[in-house]
Structure formats: C-alpha cells, structure tokens
Specification:
With 121 residues, the chain is an alpha/beta fold. Helices cover 52% and strands 13% of the residues. It is built from 5 helices and 4 strands. The longest helix is centred in the middle third of the chain and has 14 residues.
C-alpha cells in the first residue's frame, strides 16, 4: 500500500482544488518539512505545472513584501499570516471608502491575481 501513497496524494490534490491549473503562481510560506508545504505546495505546483515561489524567510514582513512583487494567485498559510494580511489591508481602509476603493486597497496588499487560499492549521 505504501507504494501507491504518492498516487493517492496526487488524486487528493486534484480532487481538493479542481480549478487550479498551469497559470497558477503559489507564494509559499510553509517549510518543506511541513506536510502541506511539501505535498500540496511544492509537489502540487509540479503536478499542476504551476509556479512555486518560496518565501525563503518566515518573517511576516518578508512574506507581506513579496505579495505585490510575486503577484500570486494562490496562498496557503497559517491563520496568523492570514490575520496579518487582513490587518495590513484594514490599516489602509477608511470607513468612508467605497467598495471599489476597498477592492483597490486589498489588491495593493495581496497583488492583482490572488484568487484562492487555504489555511493550514
């Protein structure tokens, strides 16, 4: 049964996120010794022919500075990093902002392509 383990993980990736494809860019925060980091991010990028961008540094400042540069379409992380993204966005938003202004500020923080994410915790 252990022989088929990679096969089942591949099927699991395909079933979990069926709409992902070769145009995806994953900004990856999780270390490769982490199950999600290795099997979903790194091997998932290879499976989907996407682009894997490893943050390289676990500091929030590094990760947050990479969003507009890398312009990811996928982000998988821990709840703390999602909260930090939210806090950075909310620091820009004013109560008088229109919906369009809020959307622009969100894109200013996360880039233009982010369309899905996953919290691993």
């Amino acid at each position: 049964m252990a022989l088929f383990s990679p096969f089942f993980k591949t099927l699991g990736r395909a079933a979990a996120v069926p709409d992902i494809g070769d145009k995806e860019v994953m900004l990856c925060f999780l270390p490769l010794f982490h199950t999600f980091g290795r099997f979903l991010e790194m091997l998932g990028s290879m499976y989907w022919y996407g682009t894997y961008v490893f943050a390289g540094n676990t500091a929030a400042e590094t990760l947050l500075s990479l969003f507009p540069k890398v312009n990811p379409s996928v982000f998988i992380s821990i709840p703390l990093r999602w909260m930090q993204l939210y806090e950075n966005i909310m620091a820009l938003v004013k109560p008088t902002d229109s919906t369009d202004e809020i959307k622009l500020k969100i894109r200013q923080v996360v880039g233009q392509r982010l369309r899905w994410g996953l919290s691993a915790a």
